[in-house]
Amino acid sequence: MAEIPRVALIVVLVLFACIVDAVLFDPMNLPGSPPNLLLLVVAALALVLGPVGGAVVGFFAGLAADILPPADHLIGRYALVLCLAGYVVGLFHEEARDSVLLGLVAVGAAAAVATLLYGALGGLLSDGRVDAHTVLSSLPFSILYDVVLAPFVVPWVMALARRAEPQVTRK
Amino acid sequence: MPRALVRDSRRTRVVLALLVLTAFTLITLDYRSRGGGFFGSLRRTASSVFGPVERGAADVVRPVRHAVQAVGSIGSNHKKVTELQREVASLQQQVREAPFDKQQAAELKQLLHVSAVGQFKMVFAQVIAVSPSYGFEWTATIDAGTRDGLKENMTVLNGDGLVGRLKVVGTSTSTVLLAIDPEFNVGVRLPNNQMGVVSGHGRAAMSLMLLDPTARVKVGDGLVTQGSADQTPFVWGVPVGSVTSATSPLTGDVQNGEVKPFVDFTALDLVGVVVEPPRTDPRGALLEPPLPTITVTTTATATATATVTQTPVQSFLPATISPTSRASSPAKPSSSSTPKPTLTPKPSVTPTPTPTPGVTPSPTGTAATGG
């Protein structure tokens, strides 16, 4: 019953993040790769939902980012990346209940996983846009931006998601 | 609890494996359909549905974006600071009364100039979003689509030169593959009518490869598009960039070089999509600076106006208008051509200096634009 508001919340959050990324962060043209709000939202949701939920949310969030304009890469690529990132972050969900710092570490790890994976997929699919040098040079930036942005995003998204959670006290 | 983790892990892994498999399937299917088929229409639908949403969002965040962009580029670009400081003095007066709208008017004016000189029939559009995916992909969304008469593979340009080509066209928004995208290649014509290919490399300089081993290019040469067959995806005569360095190959080898695009891709705003190419090749006509007075400081106004009016370029409407309306210039040169000021008669302000390959309007103008 409470599933529906939670799914709606997640859909709204994901679409909001996609649009903010596309119209605000990406056009800023900061050095390295742009901050990735979508990744933060997926990470925050994964910290609440756990590995399975994180992977599922990551998959569909990535799919949205693959399809929404002005994306121009193979559909499924970002879905794969965020699915695995959501899974990795979700593994920490028990511990994240007590530690804020751990949440930040998880976000940094997610940023690193996502960038490396996206780059590796580029190599696998012979994408002329991605090579080892560009991936590695943008890696510190993506981690930095996302970790800096995380305290402003992750706790709020987590709080929202927990409120919409059906049964909080489930061991 | 780690125990919960272990208990869950079998189910977790099954779900994860299924999702990963699905993602790989999607990638494979999309790869095989090459932008067509179901995935192509999915993208077009998404563009039609979410384009308007993005457009609305872009309108909301535009002031924020401009503010952050301004702060960001000053912080990251120490070299530009001194250059800017020099410009500030002369621009301050106009900037106070010329907010963002005015800059857009200037951009539109420049585009109209391009349209007039190049004989392009264009649809104007605004950039509303730029591509995500870790900065490897250089695409942008514009707020025009099929209902404005746009089709895939049309040339996109702005007042400075080539911006890119249309890749996906939705009802009211479209995706542009920017010229600096690593997948972007365009045939160009050199001043001596030789041909070459210019390719994008993201943030790095664009590269130029000449086709004929006997052809040679020199630093500072301006490049225009060669024009594709049927003028698709590239119409002819659109300025691309100027050569910043060139290799010196042995006899019989083709020459390569680097190209600095005329367009500032970090500050894309108003663009034009060519819906009807010119009947005759404009050749290098658009390489001439459309608004030579932009970078000229007030002290040099007299000489600058003199030079401009003598410029042996044919009907140059904005060029002859702007010097007259230039502030603090009592000497009002009688415009010889037929000026038709469609926009504000006030002086136009563009903070980015227009590159002037080959043509030097005045000594001060060169000093400000060089580099």
The dominant shape of chain B is: globular
Helix tally of chain A? 5
The beta-strand count of chain B equals 12
Spatial sequence of strands, sheet with the most strands of chain B: 1-2-5-4-3-12
Cα Rg of chain A: 15 Å
Along the chain, the helix and strand elements of chain A come as HHHHH
Rg over CA atoms of chain B? 23 Å
Mean pLDDT across all amino acids of chain B: 72
> What is the share of helical residues of chain B?
25-40%
Characterize the main sheet of chain A. Answer: none
How much helical structure, as a percent, in the residues of chain A? over 70%
N- and C-termini, Cα separation of chain B: 61 Å
Task: Describe it.
The complex is a heterodimer of chains A (171) and B (371). Chain A has 171 residues and is mostly helical. Chain A is built from five helices and no strands. Chain A has helices at 3-28, 37-67, 77-90, 100-124, 132-163. The longest helix of chain A is centred in the last third of the chain and has 32 residues, at 132-163. Chain B is α+β, with helices and mostly antiparallel strands and 371 residues long. Chain B has helices at 2-33, 37-76, 78-97, 100-118, 301-310, 317-325, 363-369; strands at residues 121-130, 139-142, 155-158, 161-169, 174-178, 185-189, 195-201, 204-210, 222-225, 239-246, 256-261, 270-276. In chain B, strands 1-2-5-4-3-12 form a six-stranded antiparallel β-barrel. A six-stranded antiparallel beta barrel of chain B has the order 6-7-8-11-10-9. In chain B, α5 runs antiparallel to α6. The longest helix of chain B is centred in the N-terminal third of the chain and has 40 residues, at 37-76.
